[in-house]
Amino acid sequence: MAERDVPRPIWEHIEELAQRLKVIFYSVAISSIIFMVLPADMSFLENPFDFYNPLIGKILQIIRDQVMPEELRLIAVGVVTPIELYLIASVVFGVIVSSPVIVYEFYKYIDPALYPHERRMVWGFMAAFLGLFAFGSAFGYFFVARFLIWAMMPFFEVVGAEPIVSIMDFYYLVFITVLMTGLTFTAPAVFVLLVRLGLISTESFTKNRRYIYAGLFIVTAIITPDGGPIADIVLFLPILILMEAAVLIAKRYESERRARLALPSIPIRKCPYCGADIPVDVRFCPECGRALE
Question: Structure pTM?
Fold first, then answer.
């Protein structure tokens, strides 16, 4: 009997989940502490008693230099605001650095329940999801966030206000924009996965294309509330292109499924070791090579 078919008590699953969550917690905590205390450079060694700039301070400075317009000024509205930003930013980048550990622990938890063909599907989905998320996050940082703040600047002059904003509002805008843009860009990967699982079809997408794109446009408008229609279009166009590419990829999987169903009807059974579909008169599984009798 395959290891995946051996029943395990529920408390063993809970214990394993707790252990993997503990690894994730320690990874995020250690990474966050490193960002808090690791110096951005070694110049402080010349005068150890002088204040040094931690790594997270250097990262926040880079974000300000790359995203914030020169005429915009930041202020700390509350006394504890700098500490709050210091902690939140450290945790955010701690999660980013720990993301490989998070993905690995999640995959290892579900791996025993997967057949080989399901494992390949999961790896393909994870690669596409993470790649699109990274691409979307970079697009959100270098284009969308900058455009949002640039589009906001003229309104200070219109209403006669000084371009001074809370430092928390500025960084929240950048972080949330990058996160939401990255997640939105993963929609094509999710769509292809749902098609491969047979939960939806490309035909239903084609019939309802206008409504789906209208919903995606509303999502982009929510992500870019201060950028106006131009910012919405800037974010929506690459998502539209990616979705159309995803439809073409999903159609290929549908064609392969139809081709398999069109073959002459042959009695099949599941391999008890890898879960592959094989004819009943075959004694060795073509996927794992194990004897079936």
Answer: 0.77
